[in-house]
Specification:
heterodimer, A: mainly alpha, 2 domains, 5 helices, B: mainly alpha, 12 helices, globular
Chain lengths: 99, 235
């Protein structure tokens, strides 16, 4: 089992390190750079939205879904305050009450 | 220690703190799930110490416990980790001129969470910014391993945590990171596209859902940017 873990570690490290390797012979041009500037909102949103909407049965669009109400509350607080602590507290608080 | 160094260390730690707390459920789950599936304590901790990738670890624990062939486990790990290629590409021009002794640790802790703090124009470019990033990255590393350890110790004492919906903590912190960054139409369109595409692809069980959704969303944002530029030229 330890060898499996070591191989997994090699893979995750490889995916993280590859494009930070010096001798990789390419430059990221300005157009590519502009494209990549959208990667943070794209990936982070692609992670959190399915947490809210996807469960074992499929897509859950029910208004009774506590994930959905808590997410909407968190979005409003994030938009108004720009504060990660307030957003998480309100979101988690409402989620725990509803759940 | 210089004052700026101290400040950078402290700021990195404090900025990452909410994310360190948000992964408590996942970290504990990683530890306890592995123990419940027959991993030893050392193997479980080694996974968090060496692999340091929550979603890949959770999936691999289930696969290993199910006697899945090694190649399948490694391929799945690769698919889940492939989003890191995007992160490396996106920060490459900021980090690439730094010596290896900085690039190696940065890439080791380049998680979703650290990447969320990498958008600043000067990120990774100065020594203070590097110290800030490493402080944030490694405080997340230490937290992740602490939560894993708690999961190991609690082990089979814990009830099944998977259905408590504690993953919402991740969603809440990511909302806090993404929403304030929406300052123009292109980013708004990126976020909406990413959410809709990821939800549809994931619910259909498409394995590459995350990277595919991200690439489609990034293309939408990029195209809107280009369109706006050409229209400004016409005016």
């Amino acid at each position: 089992m330890m060898s499996t873990i070591l191989l997994m570690a090699c893979i995750t490290f490889f995916t993280r390190y590859l494009f930070l390797h010096h001798t990789l012979p390419f430059r990221v041009g300005p157009k590519m750079q502009q494209f990549l500037s959208f990667s943070a909102p794209a990936v982070l949103t692609a992670i959190w939205v399915p947490i809210v909407f996807v469960n074992e049965e499929g897509i859950n669009l029910d208004w009774q879904n506590p994930y959905l109400s808590a997410a909407i509350a968190a979005i409003i607080v994030a938009y108004k305050t720009h504060n990660i602590y307030y957003t998480t507290l309100v979101g988690m608080g409402l989620f725990l009450i509803l759940n | 220690m210089k004052l700026t160094t101290k400040r950078a260390l402290l700021k990195g730690f404090l900025d990452m703190l909410p994310l360190c707390l948000a992964v408590i459920p996942w970290g504990i789950l990683c530890g306890s799930l592995a123990i419940q599936n027959g991993f030893t304590a050392v193997e479980t901790q080694a996974m968090s110490l060496l692999v340091f990738a929550g979603s890949a670890q959770l999936v691999a624990i289930e696969l290993i416990a199910g006697n899945t062939p090694l190649l399948t486990i490694l391929f799945t790990t690769f698919i889940i980790s492939s989003r890191h290629f995007l992160y490396g590409l996106a920060v490459r021009h900021k980090v690439i001129n730094q010596p290896l002794r900085w690039r190696l640790p940065v890439s080791f802790v380049l998680t979703d969470e650290l990447f969320a703090f990498s958008h600043h124009r000067k990120a990774y470019r100065t020594k203070t910014r590097l110290i800030y990033a490493l402080s944030a990255g490694f405080s997340f590393y230490i937290a992740w391993n602490l939560w894993t350890l708690i999961g190991i110790l609690a082990g089979s004492l814990l009830p099944d945590l998977t259905n408590l919906g504690l993953d919402f903590a991740i969603a809440a912190t990511f909302i806090a990171l993404v929403i304030p960054g929406i300052k123009n139409l292109a980013t708004l369109a990126t976020v909406i596209t990413a959410g809709v595409t990821a939800t549809i692809l994931k619910s259909h069980g498409f394995e590459l859902w995350l990277v595919t959704a991200a690439l489609i969303a990034m293309s939408v944002g990029y195209m809107i940017c280009r369109l706006q530029v050409t229209q400004e030229h016409k005016l």
